[in-house]
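The protein record passed on below.

***
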Amino acid sequence: MHKLAPSLLITCSLFSGCQAAGGPIDTYSAQGAAVGPVAASAIAGDMASQFAEHIDRPVRTPIKMDADGSDYASALEAALRGWGFVVITDGRVGKSQKPIQLTYSIDSLNGEVLARLMTPSIALGRTYATTPAGATPASPLSIMQRQ
C-alpha cells in the first residue's frame, strides 16, 4: 500500500506535464524500460484492452503509431489488432482515413514498469510488477481525458 501512493502521485504528475492546450501531441515512443517479450505482451494486452474500453471512437478507427522494433511495440501492435483496430505503422495514411495518433512509453519506476498510451483525447497509464513469467498491474489505471 505504501508503494501505491507514490506511484499514483508520479503517474499524475507525469500526465499533468504532458497536457497540451488543444494542439496535437508530440510523437513519442520510448523504450526506457527493458522488459522481456512475455512481460511486454502481458502489459500490451492489458493496455490495449483498457484503450479499447475507454476510447471515444469506434474500434474500426485506424490507429497510427510509430513502431520502434521493441518487444513492447510489437506486442502493443498485435494487441491492438486483436481488439479489431487497424494499426498503421509505416506512416502511409490514405486520403480518406483520419487515424488516431497513438503514442506510447514504457519506463522503469521504483522497480516497477510504468506504461502509458496517449492520444489527443485520452491518456492512460498504469504501473506493473514484472517477473520472468509476465507482468501484473501494480496500480489502478490512470485516465486523463483531454478536450
